[in-house]
Amino acid sequence: MIKIANVSKNYGDFKVLTDCTTSVSKGEVIVVCGPSGSGKSTLIKCVNGLEPFQAGEIIVDGTSVGDPKTNLSKLRARVGMVFQNFELFPHMSITQNLAIAQVKVLGRKQDEAMDKGLKLLDRVGLKAQANKFPGQLSGGQQQRVAIARALAMDPICMLFDEPTSALDPEMVNEVLDVMTELAQEGMTMMCVTHEMGFARRVANRVIFMDHGRIVEDDEKEAFFANPRSERAQQFLAKILHH
Amino acid sequence: MGYQWNWGVFFQPSATGDDTYLGWMFAGFKMTIGLSLSAWVIALLLGALVGVLRTVPNKLLAGIATAYVELFRNIPLLVQLFIWYFVLPELLPESLGNAFKQSHPVLQQFFASMVCLGLFTSARVAEQVRSGINSLPKGQKNAGLALGFTLPQTYRFVMLPMAFRLVVPPLTSEFLNIFKNSAVCSTIGLLELAAQGRQLVDYTAQPYESFIAVTLAYIAINVVVMTLMHKFERRIAVPGYIGGK
Amino acid sequence: MHDFDWSSIPGALPFLWDGMKISLVITLQAVVVGIVWGTLLAMMRLSSIKALSWFAAGYVNLFRAVPLVMVLLWFFLIVPEFVGQLFNIPKGTDMRLSSAMAGFALFEAAYYSEIIRAGIQSVSKGQMAAASALGMTYGQSMRLVVLPQAFRNMVPLLLTQAIILFQDTSLVYVSALADFFGAAYKVGDRDGRLVELLLFAGAVYFVICFSASQIVKRLQKKYHPA
Q1: Are A83 and A161 in contact (CB under 8 A)?
Q2: For residue C13, what pLDDT is reported?
Q3: pLDDT band at residue C2, thresholds of 50, 70 and 90?
Q4: Tens digit of each residue's pLDDT (9 = 90 or more) over C123-171
Q5: Nearest Cα to A140, choosing from A183, A161, A169, A182?
Q6: How many angstroms away from the CA of A156 is the closest CA of chain B?
Q7: Using one digit for the tens of pLDDT, what is the confidence trace for A125-135?
Q8: CB A159 within 8 A of CB A82
Q9: Which of A83, A108, B55, C133 is buried most, with the most CB atoms less than 10 Å from its CB?
């Protein structure tokens, strides 16, 4: 589904990503972790072309992301993304947030988009909030709406960029529960997160990044039982003491 | 002091006989309003366009927009007005220049004033629009793109509606400025409020009454505009965000 | 098309320079008086004494509601006569420069006071509390703790306002005072070369104001690296 091959990216002399290679198959859940500044957020943003990269190739469902001839908007419409700061559109009600891209990008009818939005809103447990505005919801609720907004586009896979880091601790689980459910239904997911409990429960593989390189790319069990690199061991130790 | 106050002067027939002095003032008032509103339309349209261009990821377009803003911001309004009024007709192709110079003098004055005020203010509007767009969280643009919007769609549906709301309060002050700046147009002979005030001083020999009345008229414009804009701000407020409840 | 003839400019340079000196003098004194008076107004506005705060609010709102041209006309046509009668100044004394300076200073003070008020308010309340906790009086806390921080934050805005003020000095045209713009206009009018002189004046203003604003931008980056 997603193939990342030898991807490198730099801002001037500063190397953000160096020679990253990995892949995500259909139905797989991959967790990407690593210390801050390790390039994990940048890598996931390269997947749907929000960040350009200088070398290597990323193929999503047969389409090359780096190819200047690719219609990135079309590709992005098929790849769902959830952001650290939710990024709901503050000037639109929750239902408008859910419907706007369905109508303007996919060309669905307004009613159809509303129905679909409400169904998904119900699924993330927020049907009662349909007519509110993002600013009136808690962080956890906003993030669940953001997930529903991405799902409304019927994505072939979902990218999560630290979806719980901006949340108060008591709200983390409501978001992780929605993500877990999604994983169990077979959604292809690539998640940048520090939530190791989530990784243990649902991930197929764990990727550990440091200084812009993919240091480990392992089956979940192998990663947690016996991380090969010293950096990953330190990272896991630190996370546990959090 | 020996000054004879006479507020009744406004109801006396004017020197030209066809109107009262109050009528003169009212004519100036209408001119100030008409000029300011028509210049404001130009300023908003051009300012929004130039402000957006300053934020687009295209060096050439952004550069042109920056040059535009710098040009209109760094030359005094009075000098710009004189250039529009005295210089431009000379630089136009002869037929066009002559057509301008042969049109009705009031039309010439009004046209030069409107274009001048409009462009001058558009540079300021552009700066406000740009800073409104830049003050949006960067993730908003990414979120729009990630949903499959094109860049123009992202501006239209995601960034501009929010930037517009952020920009209304500073635009209110630019809107007030355009009324105040319109007084500069008295220098090329346009009979707006300040110019009528000056005329009243000359004709009535009641300088205090004349100037107090004109000054009060400007204050009234100010109060009315502020009240309307506050109402407008409350109407467009976003629930849960700045200004919203 | 217009045939350009720039030959009247070189000979007129000394006259234009005299005009520029007037523009600069008005700017400079209005900046200095405006900042001093503006600071006082800002402190009055923020003071807990109602009468002071109302006076300052009234003053600032009045001057901000009225066009500068109107203020200058007041100070050109009405104030000199009033002051002349008050102090028995002989009729016909040329008070244009001093009344223009007074008009600018009083007008600009209203704008400066708003910048300064925002600056004072941008210094956190904790600073005032900390100063009071150390036993400083209100005046001492303001003078030693709050104002120094506020002014550092405000320098770019104060300078930008000074550039706007410099541009606005051209409006003394309404009192027929020969500042730089007035001088340029006079020369152009005399020689029938208005087009060239107006373009020249515009270019001079542009070069001065653009350079000054670039310097302000650089200062801003140096002190507030964002």
Answers
A1: yes
A2: 94
A3: confident
A4: 878 888 888 888 888 888 888 888 888 888 898 999 999 999 999 999 9
A5: A169
A6: 13
A7: 999 999 999 99
A8: yes
A9: A83
User: What is the rounded distance in angstroms from the CA atom of residue B128 to the CA atom of residue C12?
Assistant: 40
Measured CA to CA, the distance from residue C20 to residue C200 in angstroms comes to 13
Q: Chain B window 157-186: which residues touch A at a Cβ cutoff of 8 Å?
A: 157-158, 161-162, 165
Measure the CA–CA gap between B138 and A190, rounded to whole angstroms.
22
| Helix, strand, coil distribution of chain A in percent, nearest 5 | 40, 25, 35
Distance CA C1, CA C72 (A): 37
Helix H segments across C47-146?
A: 50-65, 68-73, 79-87, 96-122, 125-133, 138-140
From the list C60, C102, C226, the residue with the least C-alpha distance to C156 is C226
Q: How far is CA A229 from the centre of its chain?
A: 25
pLDDT in tens, C28-50: 999 999 999 999 999 999 888 99
> CB–CB of B145/A73 below 8 Å?
yes
Above 90 in pLDDT, residue A158?
yes
Residue of A73, A83, A149 lying closest to B150 (CB–CB): A73
Is residue C120 a contact partner of residue C150, using CB atoms and an 8 Å limit? yes
Q: Per-residue DSSP letters for C187-208?
A: HHHHHT-HHHHHHHHHHHHHHH
B152 touches chain A (CB under 8 A): no
What is the interface pTM, i.e. ipTM, of the complex?
Answer: 0.91
SS3 content of chain B, % helix, strand, coil (to 5): 80, 0, 20
List of chain B residues whose C-beta atoms are within 8 Å of the C-beta of residue A101: 147-149
Residue-level length of chain C: 226
